[in-house]
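During the no-cost extension, the postdoctoral fellow (Dr. R.K.) reprocessed legacy sequence entries with the updated structure-token encoder. One reprocessed record is reproduced below for audit purposes.
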Amino acid sequence: MSDPLAFDSIRHYQEWADLQTIVRVQRERRFADKTEREISYYISSLPPKASLILNAIRSHWRIENSLHWVWDVVFRDDDSRIRKENSSQNMAVLRSIALNILKQDPSKGSLRQKRYTAALEDTFLFHLLARV
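Re-encoded structure tokens follow.
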């Protein structure tokens, strides 16, 4: 949707002053035994050009799927109960350091497996830290 008249009622919000489009995306995933559908809505300052908006959405999800997926799966970041003062930001920095150390290791195995092994085996942990 890109009708400027439709946006008049919300354009007074400073954060939405550049609003040009509201986008509805329906995703569909097909499995052997079922089909999943999901609808997402986006507000955008991009002009109403489908290819441009689709590229922006795909770029966003590429980052989400590659980086945030690692945070969620390897470090269970979404399950973290750390909330007090700056502690969540501090833990994010430590997780970033740990992730970079794990990614530098050339040995086989997933990041999750390497993290688990480093927690259980001091020799592997020292191997990882020696590369820093």
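The first helix runs from residue 4 to 7. The radius of gyration is 21 Å. The remaining legacy entries will be reprocessed before the final report is submitted.
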